[in-house]
Amino acid sequence: MQRTMNWIPIEQELPEIDQIVWLYNANTYIPWIGGRAEDDSGDDIVWYWGNTYGSFWHNGVYWSGDIEIDQFYQPTHWMPLPELPAKEEA
After folding, report:
1. For the chain, what are the domain ranges?
2. What confidence tens digit (pLDDT) does each residue in 28-74 have?
3. Could you tell me the sign of the dihedral formed by the alpha carbons of 27, 33, 36, 42, in that order?
4. What is the pTM of this model?
C-alpha cells in the first residue's frame, strides 16, 4: 500500500511514540529525522520530540533508530518515512 507523502500538522495528528519520521519546524524552516520518545525516569511518564542525527535504519519491517530527546525540539509538522524499494528478483 502506498501512502501519500504529505506533511501532517502536529495539532492534527501525532506520530506514534518511537516511530521514526520526518519532522519539520515551519518557524525555523528546519527539517530533521526523529520522533516522539517517552521519558519515564521520573514519577510521571512524559514525552519529548527527538532527533536521530542520522542514526536510523530499516529493520525489515519499519524504520528504527536511537532518538536523542530534548525539550527544545518543537516540530510543527511530520511525515512518515518512505518504504524501501522492493527487492529485485534475480
Report:
1. 13-80
2. 999 999 999 887 776 676 788 999 988 888 888 889 888 888 888 99
3. negative
4. 0.81
